[in-house]
């Protein structure tokens, strides 16, 4: 069908998300300046994950898209994670 | 949603277009995913070398680039909002700012890479071939991943330029803006990749 | 006469006059049916080139030592045979030809979601194929790495690896775009009343396949780029001399290439699921199970890739993990086979060529599948890995499976595509010859494989010769049968008697429209039933 009825995200919402993202960026930088061994990368990736989630939910409008699309996006990340995990079943136990 | 059986009508399905774009984004995620997989294997094998390698990168430039992309992600989202609110002027301005931020990113990348290349550090150089295993892998991944990412920035910029012109001559307008929407999605993807690339390349403690 | 503008004026899609004339009406076509035919002609050609290369290999192997070609040539021949067959025939095959032609019709749509993208997909397919062929003739000689391009040989050999891998990359792009197009088509363009579970099983199969094409292909894309980068810059991702891990290449390669085999077989199974109900005049047994089994195979198929690598040096945990998943993924396939057989029980069976090919498919697929279990089990794999047992296995599954399903599909749908019928008796004779030739060609290879005959070997010990001779003879018989089959089909398509709209009394939507269909498929609104296999 022709016309778009996509949800309109307000400017101030977008601005707030940017501030949050910038904060998380600086958080990552400061956290990784400490050596926490294996946890450093985990925390960095977790924060990156939150940032990605924000970008997808708000900037990419996923929050207002249909459920199918949201499930598909989630499944892509799950697929990737599973592939990495399985590959490590080889490498971790060599 | 079901189409008339009479053809030669202006058949448009924006939902389909958007779904198509998301599917394409999935392929890009998996393309880079392959590189992230290689990265994770070799980082697990050479953790110290990877850390040493990352010390050669400037966290400041990386952070500036990260902020630039995040900012540009916001501005392109704002451009879309402007279009939905029928604010053509603001839409154009926001797209222009996005493009400017992209340019900032590329200029930074140019200097970053230029610095390394001047020092003799680039794929195929003698210096690279003399490095320790882990270091060689780290820098190879660095050039490969940031290079592929930069290529996607350029593609994104082309898309956004096209959108800019089309908004100006009103072939993209308030009742028909799926091209802008999809180009914005592509741009966000470019941002998404960098969100993961930045800590993995620059912030190994 | 006018083009088909208003509702009732029937003009076959073959006669439709559009914007372009002559050959351009074809290569610039956006009509999914024409694009399907374009793929058909290209892929048939590539198949025969690949088959000829296979026959050359068989001639070489009829005796130990050099027979007709040097060892280096032999390496090049089996490499290009694999590249052509895998990337240019079997992976695109059923989706690009019959998927393109029949998916929209079967779901009540007038075309795919993105017709221009569809045309672009075909252009890229041809471009990639041209590159692959060029890699045979330019500069440094045809690649000799096998179609699998294993590192470190592929990163160091002097032959045209970069060109061949670029070709594979481009072909992969075509695959991705086709998958994308089909997913959106199925989600967005089903006709009124056609819910997901009202779709016939071929669209279901295409749907599952499209997801694999979309998600798995990028991984081989990036892997090939890494391979090229390694050749150009000496990076060391995969080269053990530089401290890299060749096994990582194998992981990345098979993360795509295993799901790729499901791209090959799922549409094939979809075709069989269409043919069996029609020629038994019975509703398919277990429709939902078959539909969902396609999705299950697609999903689980992403998790088994390591069964190609048991002897390469993976950890023990990896070996048993992959073996377990491999046995699990066999289950949904078996479900389909049981359901097909159950459909036949007390059905009103009509032994026409499509159905005979479907029966042959089931027989050959079972052999291929069960020998796959022998390969999937780690202990037995050690004996047969890299022997001609593997070669026999995958030819039974791919050729006996996808190939015979392809033959079944063309015999089933040719009357619809061209509006003409072929000679049934000749078709049956062709089938018998092909079937005999096929089994003579491949079955002995199981036996000598277990006895120790390696694959991709130009030379062999004398005790393997009797089987090799039988195999070569089988190859010639097979090709003879194929020629007869193609001759019969081409003759039928060109000057056979006119075919009615529904020669086989099928119930799916393509049989409700004229043979051949009009440009936009449905001149009247299609009657979409709840149950796609609504036999009385």
| Total strands of chain B | 0
Biggest beta-sheet profile of chain A: none
Q: Please state the oligomeric state of the protein chains shown.
A: heterotrimer
CATH third-level topology of chain B: Four Helix Bundle (Hemerythrin (Met), subunit A)
Radius of gyration of chain B: 20 Å
User: With helices defined by DSSP (H or I, 4 residues minimum), what is the helix count of chain B?
Assistant: 7
Domain tally of chain A? 2
Q: What sequence of helices (H) and strands (E) makes up the elements of chain A?
A: HHH
Question: Runs of chain B with pLDDT <50, length 5+?
Answer: 1-9
* Rg calc of chain A: 17 Å
The first-to-last residue Cα distance of chain B is 53 Å
Please sum up the structure shown.
The complex is a heterotrimer of chains A (94), B (205) and C (536). Chain A is mainly alpha-helical and 94 residues long. Chain A is built from 3 helices and no strands.
Notes on the protein architecture:
- The complex is a heterotrimer of chains A (94), B (205) and C (536).
- Chain A has 94 residues and is mainly α.
- Chain A is 72% helix and 0% strand.
- Chain A folds into two domains: 52 residues; 30 residues.
- The longest helix of chain A is centred in the last third of the chain and has 25 residues.
- Chain A is flat and about 50 Å long.
- Chain A starts with 10 loop residues before the first helix and ends with a helix.
- The relative contact order of chain A is 0.09.
- Chain B is elongated and about 60 Å long.
- Chain B is built from seven helices and no strands.
- In chain C, 66% of the residues lie in helices and 0% in strands.
- Chain C starts with 23 loop residues before the first helix and ends in a 41-residue tail after the last helix.
- The chains are: A mainly alpha (94), B mainly alpha (205), C mainly alpha (536).
- Chains A and B meet through helix 1, helix 2 and helix 3 of A and helix 1, helix 3 and helix 7 of B.
Please supply descriptive tags for the structure shown above.
heterotrimer, A: 94 residues, mainly alpha, 2 domains, 3 helices, C: 536 residues, Cytochrome C Oxidase, Chain A
Architecture blueprint of SSEs:
The complex is a heterotrimer of chains A (94), B (205) and C (536).
Chain A: H1 11-31, H2 38-59, H3 67-91
Helix pairs in contact in A: 1-2
Chain B: H1 14-45, H2 47-54, H3 59-84, H4 88-118, H5 126-129, H6 133-168, H7 178-202
Helix pairs in contact in B: 1-2, 1-6, 1-7, 2-6, 3-4, 3-7, 4-6, 6-7
Chain C: H1 24-27, H2 32-60, H3 71-90, H4 93-106, H5 115-137, H6 153-156, H7 161-188, H8 201-233, H9 246-280, H10 287-300, H11 316-344, H12 353-376, H13 378-384, H14 388-418, H15 424-451, H16 465-495
Helix pairs in contact in C: 2-3, 2-4, 2-5, 2-16, 3-5, 4-7, 4-8, 4-9, 4-14, 5-7, 7-8, 8-9, 8-10, 9-10, 9-11, 9-12, 9-14, 10-11, 11-12, 12-14, 12-15, 14-15, 15-16
